[in-house]
Write a structure and sequence with these properties.
Layout: E1 3-6, E2 21-24, E3 27-33, H1 48-65, E4 73-80, H2 86-97, E5 103-108, E6 118-125
Parallel strand pairs: 4-5
Antiparallel strand pairs: 1-2, 2-3, 3-6, 4-6
């Protein structure tokens, strides 16, 4: 089994000692994404909905860099600082994943990196 580090400048650089994603044995393991603008490197502090879209766009960019796509995602884990925003998140999530509907977990956490409101990690099939 070969392990390949996946990187793209279309998603933010990691803020710590980890990779954007690792490709191994037909799978792509994406590190958690928070709402960081990939161009400026700054945390996006707009509306929660804007933050959700930016995180999902960043995930999509990493998926593409790893020869995968939203349709190939098999598992998603979502971390929210406030579960009261679950419904708002769910409607945006449905726009991105449509009928793909991977397995999913969503948990409320007390704190996320850079004190953001959302972080998402994913596992996908890849070529």
């Amino acid at each position: 089994m070969q392990k390949v580090i996946v990187t793209t400048d279309k998603a933010p650089e990691p803020i710590g000692p980890y990779s954007q994603a690792i490709k191994a044995n037909g799978f792509l393991f994406l590190s958690g994404q928070i709402p960081i603008d990939p161009v400026s490197g700054n945390l996006h502090t707009g509306s929660f909905e804007e933050q959700c879209r930016l995180v999902l766009d960043n995930i999509n960019a990493v998926l593409q860099a790893g020869n995968s796509s939203i349709e190939q995602v098999v598992k998603v884990t979502i971390f929210l600082q406030d579960m009261q925003k679950f419904t708002a998140f769910n409607s945006i999530y449905a726009e991105y994943f449509g009928e793909a509907k991977p397995a999913r977990s969503c948990v409320e956490v007390s704190c996320l990196p850079k004190n953001t409101e959302i972080e998402i990690e994913a596992i996908a099939l890849c070529s």
